[in-house]
Amino acid sequence: MAKYLKITLSILMISAIIISCKKDSPVDEDGLLITFRQECYVSNFELLGTDFITVRSGTAVIDTVAQTINVTVNAGTDLKNVYPQFSLATDCKLEPKITGRTDLSNLANPKVYTVVSGNRKIRKDYKLYVKF
Asked: Which of 17, 45, 60, 82 has the fewest CB atoms found within 10 Å of its own CB?
């Protein structure tokens, strides 16, 4: 009887391990977990120069209702070679991806970044306005 109990417990343990390893959570094309979160906003913004030191002359103003980011940079900043950094709501992602230096020199046409919610159903376009 003890032998059958051990076999039954072993089968139950193996079944539990297999079930717990099952992939229940979907991922997007970037390999990021898709969650239930609907929040979709930019919480902080930083702009770095080629030396990875901030080029902002003040705090960036983020308007989550108008979906704008206004940032003033130091005079003489090379806006063709800057590194924007966004802090987003939990589980959000940014499009287009920032993979290196960015050209923000066209001040007449603000760059548009899209924040995508954790559930990937809500998309908000933020316009980035840079001025000296």
From this structure: 17
In a domain, 69, yes or no: yes
We report the CATH number of the domain holding residue 88 as: 2.60.40.2340
Q: What is the dihedral of CA 72, 74, 80, 83, to 10 degrees?
A: -70
State which residues form the domain around 70: 25-131
Q: Which residue, 117, 113, 118, 80, is CA-closest to 98?
A: 113
CB neighbour class for 130 (10 Å; exposed up to 12, middle 13-18, buried from 19) = buried
Q: What is the CA radius of gyration of the chain?
A: 23
pTM, full prediction = 0.79
Query: In whole angstroms, what is the distance from residue 130 CA to residue 79 CA?
Result: 9
Contact 73, 128 (CB under 8 A): no
Q: Is the pLDDT of residue 59 over 70?
A: yes
